């Protein structure tokens, strides 16, 4: 029996999740959508995606639904999640992709409305669990975990690599730089903003900003708590991010050993999560890649045997959305 889901928020992440489920004919039943838009506009945005192209199937709409490849998906425009009819619709999982309900209390309104589980597509406070597929998904407890955060796209990239490296080489400390495309939170013209850097036109500048990845790694991998710091650079591209991970390790190593080890992990226990690239590719080549992280093996460096630099690409939308779908399937298997 298919898992019955509802998507709350049909912005970039919500649309990508709906597209992947529809294109791949996943065994997931999208029953309903709650959006601040309207069916006509959201049908258009779903059909004509500026990053991933035109949807190859059939998209229609009514005043109360989207119809994708003949399947009708109920459409709501409710600002208060506690008033949504999740109980009547027998919703198993709500994918909370609005960006507004990133706490236990806010996401809990979906539980109050009758949903069995809520999966938040961003870091969140005071939730029952924060899960990264391939890293700590086996800690999920269906009896205890009803409101779950899947952290961020950056953590889904970095946490598997950090876990892999810590297992073999023992990380002493590290520093992270995230090179990230501008997002809906940026403006393409200078505006008034509490953060003077974020007030700058994102399509004209590289913008340094803060990131929570350092703290979040310690949440996912407790033995690495407090061992990282990091910064993010917003750049004028539309898709695909790059994580620059610099770590000091306990054991002496070299580039060949590290790359061979990463390739072994990508082909083995982290298959589907981690990918390994030996070609001289650039960001646009990884658009639509479903992996959480793609190791750029040509960029691996080692200084003095124990200072290691690694680069990892990730599609900050498409890769992350695939992990959300993987976790929905994982929930269904329990």
Automatic annotation (TrEMBL):
Keyword Nucleotide-binding part of the UniProt annotation: yes
Sites where the protein binds NAD(+): 12-13, 121, 316
The entry's keywords: NAD, Nucleotide-binding, Oxidoreductase
Site (Activates thiol group during catalysis): 180
Pfam families (UniProt xref): Gp_dh_C (PF02800), Gp_dh_N (PF00044)
UniProt GO MF annotations: NAD binding; oxidoreductase activity, acting on the aldehyde or oxo group of donors, NAD or NADP as acceptor
InterPro entries per the UniProt record, alphabetical: GlycerAld/Erythrose_P_DH, GlycerAld_3-P_DH_cat, GlycerAld_3-P_DH_NAD(P)-bd, NAD(P)-bd_dom_sf
Occurrences of domain Glyceraldehyde 3-phosphate dehydrogenase NAD(P) binding (ranges): 3-153
Family indicated by similarity: Belongs to the glyceraldehyde-3-phosphate dehydrogenase family.
Protein's UniProt name: Type I glyceraldehyde-3-phosphate dehydrogenase
The organism of origin for this protein: Calorimonas adulescens
Organism lineage: Bacteria, Bacillati, Bacillota, Clostridia, Thermoanaerobacterales
């Amino acid at each position: 029996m298919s898992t019955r889901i509802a998507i709350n928020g049909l912005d970039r992440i919500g649309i990508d999740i709906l597209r992947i489920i529809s294109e791949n004919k996943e065994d997931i039943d999208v029953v309903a959508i709650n959006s601040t838009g309207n069916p006509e506009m959201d049908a258009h945005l779903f059909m004509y995606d500026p990053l991933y192209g035109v949807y190859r199937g059939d998209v229609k709409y009514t005043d109360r639904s989207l119809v994708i490849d003949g399947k009708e998906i109920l459409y709501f425009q409710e600002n208060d999640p506690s008033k949504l009819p999740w109980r009547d619709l027998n919703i198993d999982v709500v994918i909370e992709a609005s960006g507004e309900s990133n706490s236990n209390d806010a996401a809990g309104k979906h539980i109050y409305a009758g949903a069995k589980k809520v999966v938040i597509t961003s870091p969140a406070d005071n939730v029952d669990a924060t899960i990264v597929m391939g890293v700590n998904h086996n800690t999920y407890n269906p009896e205890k975990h009803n409101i779950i955060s899947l952290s961020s796209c950056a953590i889904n990239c970095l946490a598997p690599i950090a876990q892999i490296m810590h297992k073999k080489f023992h990380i002493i400390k590290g520093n992270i730089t995230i090179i990230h495309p501008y997002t809906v939170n940026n403006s393409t013209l200078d505006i008034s903003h509490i953060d003077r850097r974020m007030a700058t036109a994102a399509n004209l500048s590289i913008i340094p900003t803060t990131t929570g990845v350092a703290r979040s790694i310690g949440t996912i991998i407790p033995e690495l708590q407090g061992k990282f710091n990091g910064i993010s650079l917003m750049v004028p591209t539309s898709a695909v991010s790059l994580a620059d991970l610099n770590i000091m390790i306990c054991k002496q190593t070299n580039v060949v050993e590290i790359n061979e080890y990463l390739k072994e992990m990508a082909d083995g226990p982290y298959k589907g999560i981690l990918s390994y690239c030996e070609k001289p590719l650039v960001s646009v080549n990884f658009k639509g890649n479903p992996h959480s992280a793609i190791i750029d093996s040509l960029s691996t460096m080692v200084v003095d045997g124990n200072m290691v630099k690694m680069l990892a690409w990730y599609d900050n939308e498409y890769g992350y959305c695939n992990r959300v779908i993987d976790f929905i399937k994982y929930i269904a298997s329990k």
